[in-house]
Structures are given as C-alpha cells and as structure tokens.
Amino acid sequence: MRFDTPATTNPIDQLKIVGKPTDRIDGPLKTTGTAPYAYEWHDVVPNQAYGYVVGSAIAKGRIASIDLTKARAAPGVLAIVTAENAGKLGKGDWNTAKLLGGPDIQHYHQAIALVVAETFEQARAAAQLVRVDYIRAQGAFDLASAKDSAIVPDGATPDTAVGDFASAFASAPVELDATYTTPDQGHAMMEPHASIAAWDGDKLTLWTSNQMIAWSTGDMAKTLGIPKENIRLISPFIGGGFGGKLFVRSDAVLAVLGARAARRPVKVALARPFMFNNTTHRPATIQRIRIGATRDGKITAIGHESWSGDLPGGGPENAVQQTRLLYAGANRMTATRLAVLDLPEGNAMRAPGEAPGLMALEIAMDEMAEKLDIDPVEFRILNDTQVDPENPDRRFSQRQLVECLRIGAERFGWKTRGVRTGRVREGRWLIGVGVAAGFRNNLLTTSAARVRLDHRGVVTVETDMTDIGTGSYTIIAQTAAEMMGVPLDKVVVRLGDSIFPVSAGSGGQWGANNSTSGVYAACVKLREAVTQKLGFNSAEALFEDGNVRLGSRSVSLAEAAGEAGLVAEDAIEYGNLAKQYQQSTFAAHFVEVGVDVATREIRVRRMLAVCAAGRILNPKSARSQVIGAMTMGVGAALMEELAVDKRHGFFVNHDLAGYEVPVHADIPHQEVVFLDETDPISSPMKAKGVGELGLCGVGAAIANAVYNASGVRVRDYPVTLDKLLSGLPEI
Amino acid sequence: MRSFTYERASSPAEAAAAASAEGAKFIAGGTNLLDLMKLEIETPTHLIDVNDLALDRIETTPEGGLRIGALVRNTDLAADERVRRDYGLLSRALLAGASGQLRNKATTAGNLLQRTRCPYFYDTNQPCNKRQPGSGCAAIGGFSRQHAVIGASEMCIATHPSDMAVAMRVLDATVETVRPDGTARSIPIAEFHRLPGDTPHVENALIPGELITAVTLPRPVGGTHIYHKVRDRASYAFALVSAGAIVQRDGTGHIALGGVAHKPWRVEAAEAELPRGAKAVAEQLLADAKPTQENAFKLPLVERTLAAVLAEART
Amino acid sequence: MTAAPSGANAQAGTGDMPSAVGEPAMSKVAITVNGEARELDLDTRTTLLDALREHLHLTGTKKGCDHGQCGACTVMVDGQRINSCLTLAVMHEGDTITTIEGLGAPQNLNAMQAAFVKHDGYQCGYCTPGQICSAVAVLDEIRAGIPSHVSGDLTATPQATVAELRERMSGNICRCGAYSNIVEAIAEVAGRPA
Ligand SMILES: Cc1cc2nc3c(=O)[nH]c(=O)nc-3n(C[C@H](O)[C@H](O)[C@H](O)COP(=O)(O)OP(=O)(O)OC[C@H]3O[C@@H](n4cnc5c(N)ncnc54)[C@H](O)[C@@H]3O)c2cc1C
Ligand code: SF4
Ligand code: FES
Ligand code: FES
Fold it and tell me: Does B8 lie at the interface with A, CB-CB under 8 angstroms?
C-alpha cells in the first residue's frame, strides 16, 4: 500500500480497540518468566555448548602472538575461535569496528577469541588461559584534546546555514555563547547481548536478541560471506535494546563461528563487565550554542556546533539536529564535527542526536530566558514556529509544542515557582523546578506484514517487527483486531523472525507507527480477500464482532475463511509527504528537584511530561515508554557517565555497580499527559513515535531545576553533587 | 572462575585448621568472594563453607554489650531489637549498604572483609598492587573519583567500601577470632583494618586461615546515633563519603568516616573538636589529606556532611 | 561434606601465568525448587542461578549482570530473597527455593504478577521476574518488621509506604524505567494507594 496522500477516515478511526489503554498481551508470559529470551532456548536444538568471549586488554595496537595451548588443554574445551582460524570475515554495513579483532586491535575489550566448552564454567575458566602478547600503539582517547583535529564528517548535512548568523548574532542586543558537554553513556539494557547459533549444513539458525531482524540478517550474511537466505534469525523477546541491539554484535558472530568450529550449537552471552567496552555506546559531545535575541525575547540568531569522536570510519553524534527545527529565528547555523578517537565504537543510543542535543540546547534556552528576564515557558512559546525555519514553505504536519508547554505549566503549578534561585527550602532540601521542550522527528520506513485468517476466526499476524519492551505485540494485535473486527483475544501476533515479512524494526521511535501501518496495509488486503470471496462490495462491508456484514447479510469470519483459511501480505510504503511536511513529535518536560543544603545530593521529586505525538495507539504502554525514557533522562542528567581512562583508552566503570543508572529510590511518581492528536500526514494509523520523545529534553529540565534550586549552573553532564560544591555559600 | 573443592566445616576450630592449607578460603555469604572469583581476582582452590558453624546468634555479653556471631546476616543484625534500640548507628549503616537481597546473604565477618571497589582492582587487564603486588597502581593518575583522600600511599589509593565497618569503628567493636592452631584472640577494630602502605594486598590483621567468630560491642553509650551516607544514586550505591556518629547531649561524641580511606577513618583527637563544629572536626580529621584532582571534592563534602550530622544531632 | 577430590592445581594469588585449570570438582546437591525435590550433580563452580537456568531449565530467573549489581536473578531461598548469581548451588543443600515459575503461571497469575500486568510494571520484561520475587519478599519483610534505610524511627514498626517500597526495591534495576508503575503495582498488592 502506497501512502502518499493524507489519511482519510478508515477503520482504525472506530477506536474500539486502538487507542484504548490495553494490558500487554505478552504480560502473562513476562510476569511468569515464560517468555523466552535469547539465551534461554534449551529445547530448540540439543547438545548446546557454551562460548565465552575473550577481549583485548589494550585499546589500540596489534596482537604479537596468541597462545592457546593452555586454554585448549583445559577440561571441556571443544574449540577456540580467533581471527587466525576463523577464515575470512566481512564486516557488516552497520558495524564500524570488527566484531572479531586481531591481529589489529581497534578498541579495548574488542573480542579476540571465543572459547567453546561443554559447560559455562569450563568455558569461562579456559577463556582466562588464553595468553596474548600485544604491541601497544598510541591512541587518541580524549575528545577535548582531539577536538581541534575534528573534521567535517561524510553524509547528511554536517553544516547548515540560513541568513547571516554571524552578523545577526554580533548585533543581537541579548546574547548567549556557552559550551556544554555530555559524556559517553551506555545502553545498559538488562538483558546482556546473547545468541544461540546452530548450523544445519550450510543453513544457520540464530536465536538472538536483536532490534532489527532484516538489517542483522543481512549483516550476518555479509560478515560470513554466505547468502542471507541461508540465515534464519529469531528474536521474539528482547530484554531491552535502546539502540544497543540494532546491529549484529560479537555475541552473535562468535556464537556462529563457535558453532562452526565445535560442530555443535553454541550459546554465547556477553559478560556484563565486558559489555560496556565491547559493544557500542552513545558518544560524548562538546556543544557550543550561541543564541542572539531582541530585548523582548525574539530569537534573531541561533547557532549550534557539536563535536564528537568515533573510531576511523565511524560517524558523529548528530546533536545539532533539533536546533534546525525547534525554534524560530531568521539567522541560523549548525555544524557537526567528528574527531577520531580510539575508544569503543560510538553508535546509536535511544534518541541519538536529540537526547544529548537537547540536554545542551534546553539549558541554553533557560540561560537565555534568564538573561532576558522572561519566564522560560514563555520564552519558548515566543519563539515557536509552525514551519521549518530553514524552509518556511514546509509546514509541520502537526506541532503542538505551545499547547504542551501551556498545559504542562498549568498542571505542574509552574506559576508558583520561585524565580530566584536557591530560595525555596523545605527542611534539608532546596527546591527548584525546571522546564524543557522535547522534540524528536517522526521517521517513516517501509514495513510489511502477513495476516492470516483461519477457520476458527483467529487472525494471526506475522512480521519481523520486534518488541523490545515497546509494546509492539499489543499495538499490532490492537491494529489487527480493529481492522478485522475481532476481539483482541482472537488475534495472535508472531514477531521477530526473519521468515516473516520485513518490518520497520525497532529503533528511532519509528517502530510503532510504521509496523502497525504495515499491519494495517496487510489487513486491508485481507479484508478485500474476505469480501471478494463472499462476493461483497468491499467498500461497504462492515467487519464487526467477528463477522462481515453487508446490509442484512452477515457471515462469520471463521466461515468466510473456511478450512483453507485466507492469507494476505502487504507493506506500507511512503510517498513524499515527509518531504512536503516536517513530521515531528513534541513534549514539554517539567521537573522538581531537591538539592541537599549540606551535601548537595540531588533527588528528583516530581516529573511531568506532556506529549503531542499523533494518535496514541495504546495509552498504557505508550505512557510506559515515556516514563521509562524520563527515567533514563534522570540517569543522563544526574549520574550516567562512562568514565574514560585517557591514558589507556577505555571506559573504567564498566559494570553496573560502577556505571550507575537510576534505581527505584531515584524515581518519584511520574505523570504523563498525551494531547489529543491525530496526524493524517504521518500514516493511516495517524500515529507517530513516542518511545524516544520522553527522553528528549528531560535531562535539561532536571539541570534547569537544579539551577533553580541551588543557583549553580552546571554545563557539564552529569550534574553531580561535586559540581555543586564549589563556590557555594556556607551552610 | 578456577576449579575448587568444597567442604562444609562443622566447627570453628576445624574450619580454621582446614583454611590454613594453601589456596583455601572461607566462604560465608559469598557476595564478595564469588563476585571476585568470577573475575579470577580471587582464585581459591578449596572453599570452606562456614555457614554451618552456628555463629549466627546475637547474644548479650556479661558486660552489657552484644556479641554478634560472625555469620549473623546484615539484615538480621540491622533488624535486631537491641541493635535498633542501643546501637542505632549500626542498624543505619547496614541498611544504607548494598540491597535487600545482598543484606540477606552478607554476613558480619564477610562485610568487614569485603574488598575494595576500585574499578582497576576489578579489571585484571590493569596494573594493581593490591591484586598483583608490584604491578603498579592504575588508579593513580586515572579515574579516581571514588578513591581515598587520606591515609593512602604511592602504592594504592583504594578505599574500604563497608558501611558497617564505619559504625563498628565508632562503636569500638572488637573482632574475635580463632587461629588455625586453635587459639582465640580479640582484635580491636581500630587495629583490624590496615592502611595500604607498601603492602596494599594485606588489608587486615588476620593471619592465613584465621576465622572470625564474632564481633563484640561494648555496652551502649546512649547519645544520638547517626549514619549519613552521601552518594549520587539514592540507593544501592557505595558511599562517596559517609559519616557515622554518636553525639551526646553535651555536644561531645564519636565520629568516623567512610569513603575516604583504606579503612574506616577515625581520629580520636578530632572528636575533641566536636563541640566546636564541623569545620574544626573536619580540619583535624583530614589534616594530612592528599586528594587527587578528581576526588578533591570529598574534602568540602566531608565538612558539609559533618555539618549535616551535627545539625541532625541537635534536632 | 567434601566434594570429590579434583585435579585442581591452580595456585592462589594472581601470578602472571595462571596454571592450568583443573578438572572440575563435582558435587551433589539436593534442593527443593518450587515444591519439587531436585537432585543435581554439579561442578562446584555452578551458581544457584546457573543451576536453575542451565541445569533445571528454569529460565524465568534472569541473569543481568552475574555480579550482584542488578537484581534480575532474585529468588527466594527459605522465604528470603537473595541474588542467586552470588551464591553457589552446592551451598544450598536441603534448601527450599522459590522462583518466578513457582509463584504463578500464565493462566494462573498470582496477585503480584497480575498487578504488574494491570499497572504495566514492566516493558522488556527482563528484570520483571526479579522485580516480582523481590516485591513479594519485600512485603514479607515489612510484615516481619524489618526496618529500611528510609524508616524514620528505627524502633517503630515499618509501613508499606511508597518511600519504603522504593528504597527496598532498589536492588532491582529496571533499565526500561518502569519504576513508577512497579511501585503502583506493589502498593496495590500491599493494600495501599500509591
Ligand atoms: C552490588 C553490590 C553493592 C554493594 N553495596 C554495598 C554498600 O553500599 N555498602 C557495603 O558496606 N557493602 C556493600 N556491598 C558489599 C557487601 O556488603 C559484601 O559483599 C558483604 O558484606 C560480604 O559478606 P559475605 O558474607 O557475603 O562475604 P563473603 O563473600 O562470603 O566473604 C568475603 C571475604 O570474607 C572472608 N570470610 C567470610 N567469613 C569469614 C569468617 N568468618 N572469618 C574469616 N574470613 C571470612 C571470605 O573468605 C572472603 O574473603 C555490596 C556488594 C555488591 C555486590
Ligand atoms: S588504588 Fe589500590 S586497588 Fe586500585 S588500582 Fe591502585 S593498587 Fe589497585
Ligand atoms: S544477575 Fe544477579 S544481581 Fe544481576
Ligand atoms: S522491564 Fe526492561 S529492564 Fe525492567
């Protein structure tokens, strides 16, 4: 189905099932421990052996020699894979560093061997016996020192300019020129990367934990140099990804190579202390923001530059993206620069670009509002734009940022805030509030599905879409139920298998809208198949209560399907509505924090997000997406930092005790409001993404609240108590 | 993790005798030892499980104090009525540590003996004098936000991570042991943990195979009991700085710090300054502090934490 | 009880060249898991977590970190919650273990499991079994009068306030960030408004 004109009324608009807060259909499996994750498929193939990965002890250099004698001789060892014996390997399109390193080493903990043994205990012990001699090479590990060597990266618009930023900024009556930094961050999803690989002749089956089935099937084929038709990837349950599982990673490649070497199925999970340096992370940024405005608060010049680093061949963190679209202003510029760093591979993490970009931009807006002596909510509203500021002919398909801000301010009690910093106190706590805008684009990609109707009237949806906690199972079931006019319990959803039609996959908050639109398209076809079979006029037939009705005729779907059943497959494909209209999602974040008068410990007390993100398909799971993102935002604002050892080039705090993410005690009750919105420009579902929006801006809202509470402006994340200690008044 | 044989000891003397063998180690809750064994930072070849030793009781001593068996779980110790009433500091310190699950397993002895959380100690690719004597110290000049600001050496700047130990230090606890030859001894807590000096791998006064049987507390001294733990994350995190204190009505008291040194940091002379306030106490406590650039903030933080403690004691 | 003698000849300490890993020492252990008596012959190195997941194929208990840092492996041993990754299976001779599978089944959810579904107290589901086991045990701990870090008065009987729940649940990390909903689910089971 081609989608190139705005959606009109369609069966989804009935909203009998779609749009209703719905318990997850996979909930009973998840809450009873019966949902199978990647490492848990004991029954699918017998005789599984265990692989344990050995990682490089240096960040850059070469392996001079590798001695496997002791490891080979260790009890239970079946095979050892290294670059020397693995045969020729390609590199996946989505990978920067090689997943099996050697002799060249590209980063710390790059995988250099897999030890396969009868048991996990044996594999782990034998892995410690692999002896490696390295020749170290000099590397670059510090973004601040590499900044001056950064270059213009290849690819999408590293530089943009409209009007004359330099002179507009220079002549602006009120201006801000500030530099912000965000640190490297880890996805730290709770399920470690894990895979089970089994070969049957030249056919490979891989049970893994992966967000993007088709990308990863393709990349695995490329890595191995085999046709992708020979690979089956299965990933129906994923214990979190956040971008860290968009790609094939070392667990998968090594399980596959290990299985080949050991001639047995092999399972591999990455050990937690190994994950942070072995896999990808969100790269650190240095961001310079300049804003010039008139005295009454109209932005006349806005400039945003960002520096990040990555391995040679890698890409930048696109932290300036939102600044091109979020606020009005005639004169604008953005610039993205990329330095070479020999740290582990930087790559996408939840809301790449916008998450760190808004952490900086939305502090800058707060600072600017203060300089102007304008309420920060009003300052944002004053600079709203309904068109793409770089191209005023392009309107936003929907843009309710102002409404988000106003409704949020009202609900949150923004008016009662203390404008002066450091003045509101409750016992040992200094109280402050902060606001920030949230922004994330709506991305459209082709997505296909197959829908079957059987003789019991059960609708089965098959698509390689994944559910990484996003609620895909449930919204897809809701979509199919609404389309076919059946109750939810008559729908079966099967996801995450490369034998199913290729979907959008889970990433970039594009999953929900695109995958359900693909299911919509397939259901439209299935409806046609049903009506055609019954000889109904398809335009007038009603699908209701498990029946198809036309006038006084009514046939149950079960009967319509008959013994043979009916099947339909289709994809949603987008025309150029996305070119004609800018499609984005918006939020306003409001946060209240307490800062301990004495120790400067920071605790979040209240959080509210108001979101405008198109139709909300399942308010229950959508809310969870938003609160989950807000929680991640608390981590980003207040504690998360992969600490770089700038001498040896690795992330030092590489476990979950060292890399602190929020725990229960850090998170108060969180409130989320979704504005009533449908976006017919986006898709037949009239939905947009929401899974990343909740993260966009929240970090800055917290930082602004800390400033409001304490009077100390921190521009280097995370905002930790030590940064609030200097230059403080006595207690 | 290397292979090891396993036995369950049935008496303290038998356990101590067995533990004097090369490569043998006790295991109690296992929450620290197994963590380190998985990374081959600890590599025992024989484990002696001491959980059957009936050292899990808390008894009142003839002097009116408490005798806490080495195997009393952190949860049980924190929840004991006598501890809550008379040694609130100890309850508070325990409850500020780790998580509910870990406290259910962690034992009194194991907690005292837990090893540092220095991330370089935990990474066997890195030089670490504590893990591998003579290899160097990667933390010096590296990421040292968590590390010691006082009492450290050129060989090691690690901290002792225990919260409970800080309380024990304030409470003047005594560690009771049995040595492999069967003889018992008592070690005052002040002499139990060591500073790193030239031998950071030697962390306490125990000799190989020496088994902790109990920790005893003197009779209660009254006063207000406070344990103030400062951390970025609200729970399930080690202290950046912590302060355990008993403050009396007249402003006198006892105080020790966690998160600043290789052992709970107490300077009796500094306690004389208590009535003069946090600044005076902090100055004495940290007189010879040598922080790194990354942890220099702990000095003002200690003073501020002490101020919070004294303020709380007044209310 | 002594495990079968092994050829273990690794030396203590961390020399440059670890000596060869010996043959695994095997040991028998009898435990009761979810009401069923189980007997296992295990490498002594096997954690309770791996015994459950890899030997008994009870994969409801999750491995998130294997180092006591996440709580995904939480199970109840003789009614108390622990991290099953930091305990050896052989140390549990005679113990009674309850895992998530022992609390309820998809067609027969227990109250806590049902409350998690109702309040959407999860997303990816990986931390969920640990959260649920922990939540059940937390309510027991409160009933047993065990204080917490946030209990105002140490000598008073603790209540199941949301502040108490949050502190006590902090050993269970949820990277999906379902905390707000999880606490609502537990509060409902505890019979209090969140
Ligand atoms: C993620 C995480 C967070 C934590 N957070 C904190 C925290 O915030 N604050 C805090 O204080 N602690 C914290 N801990 C540490 C925890 O308190 C310790 O792991 C625990 O107290 C150790 O006790 P155990 O009985 O399990 O010791 P084991 O692991 O059994 O033993 C530790 C050591 O003591 C020896 N040993 C045990 N018993 C005896 C005995 N009777 N005689 C002689 N030697 C003995 C063992 O041989 C071993 O060397 C944390 C741990 C983890 C994993
Ligand atoms: S501080 Fe101590 S424990 Fe840490 S690396 Fe240095 S020697 Fe090792
Ligand atoms: S797996 Fe046991 S605490 Fe993480
Ligand atoms: S539900 Fe994904 S980690 Fe908690």
Answer: no
